[in-house]
């Protein structure tokens, strides 16, 4: 699920950059891309996978 969120953030970043949309300093394409990279890193680290360390009997 986090990978899908990262892909959406990358797409929004691409649209802002490709359309040359002027945004304020918070929502620049670079900042959105960095948030997407953070979400992707969390996905690769296994956060939000739903796996638990407890075994069910």
TrEMBL record:
The entry's keywords: Membrane, Signal, Transmembrane, Transmembrane helix
Lineage: Bacteria, Bacillati, Actinomycetota, Actinomycetes, Kitasatosporales
Domain of life: Bacteria
Transmembrane segments: 28-51
Name used for this protein in its record: DUF4383 domain-containing protein
UniProt key word Transmembrane: yes
Species assigned in the record: Streptomyces siamensis
Signal peptide limits: 1-18
